[in-house]
Specification:
With 291 residues, the chain is mostly helical. It contains 13 helices and no strands.
Length: 291
Amino acid sequence: MKHSFSPRLMLTVSMILFGTLGLFTRNISLSSGELALYRAVLAAALILVYLAVTRQPLPAKMPGRELPLLLISGMAMGINWVLLFQAYRYTTISLATLSYYFAPVIVIAACPVLFHEKMTMRQLICFAMSTVGLVLIIGAGGNGTGTDLTGILFGLGAAVFYAAVILMNKRIRQITGIHRTLIQFGGAILILGPYAAFTGGFHLGSLDGRGWGCLLIVGLLHTGITYCMYFSALKDLSGQETAVLSYIDPLVAALISVLFLGEPITPIQTLGGAMILGFTLWNEVSGESPA
């Protein structure tokens, strides 16, 4: 019991922190690309310091096949961050997060094509009903700030790239743990550095004290510390435990958005979000446990 409690606690805390991400990014007056870049840089720097202090050197030899794939998945993760931050700017935190959580549905649809996995009836129902939920969210997208639809589409774009990260990581088996996370952050930096340079440049000097504080929290806490906790917990938890606890993130984001920030969400959008989360959770929890 004691062995399983700590990973559950780490994953729970990780999901709560992920759910508060939008609240902090709202207070950072940087472009989405520049914010995503500094997020990756701060997180990578923190991990490098940790590895140095604990005397855990990088492996002398990286698996040749997996390293490029890991870097590409890191690049996809960086693009995913940019699109998610754009979603936060155009719509409410709750709608951006609910759109983003369409990623597991994309994975369900892609696996039969990419990995020749058979789609079960449960997965087919999950895909169909979650898609209906997304349609409900998008269909009511004009009832908020007037830019809700744009934000929802950015969130859906972020979901596509997050799904790509999940699918690529299914093929990465030899590089694990904190080293995998560090390399992915490196891949994110490789694409986000040029992107930020060519889409407006760098404006760290424009941040006030509040902006600096939020940036450090996003980079060090939400990314460096939380990603390490997240990936450390995953290896000791079953797929069902992970699925259930992962839904703390969108629930926390929705509560912050509606109760603390007073952002609007219609009953139809609430129903659509519940359908996406509910049917994907049903699919993951009701599926067969891995051998």
